[in-house]
From TrEMBL:
This is DUF2200 domain-containing protein. InterPro entries: SP1917_dom_sf, UCP033199. It comes from the Bacteria. Pfam families: DUF2200.
Length: 121
């Protein structure tokens, strides 16, 4: 299933600041930490903690967030289904990048080992 253009536009307009608390609540509810979440975001985007906090303060959209990001070279190894979509089949680059992040957060919440989440093994 491929996201619609309207779906892609909605995702582009979401702010990182509005989604970050939901990511944090999801992982903490499952016993993971803010530090682990931040590590996952840093791995995918190249943003350190200070940069992440600045992006939250600026209330940047996901469009701006991923324009500024330097995606990890192994990001393409992120596969599977998230939110009803198979990540590797999503054609819109921004929607794919957002779903990469969603998938990593989901794996963290499900207790997957950090080495596996960060595609180092």
């Amino acid at each position: 299933m491929e996201p619609t253009q309207a779906h892609n536009e909605k995702i582009a307009k979401l702010t990182f600041a509005s989604v970050y608390p939901a990511y944090l609540a999801k992982v903490e509810k499952k016993g993971r930490t803010k530090e682990e979440l931040d590590q996952v975001i840093t791995w995918l985007t190249g943003f350190n903690l200070t940069q992440q906090e600045q992006l939250i303060r600026e209330k940047v959209t996901f469009d701006t967030f991923f324009q500024r990001a330097t995606l990890h070279p192994n990001a393409a190894l992120i596969t599977g289904v998230i939110c009803g979509y198979r990540v590797e089949e999503i054609e819109n680059p921004l929607t794919k990048q957002v779903r990469y992040l969603d998938k990593l957060v989901d794996e963290l919440a499900k207790g997957k080992a950090m080495e596996k989440i960060l595609r180092t093994t």
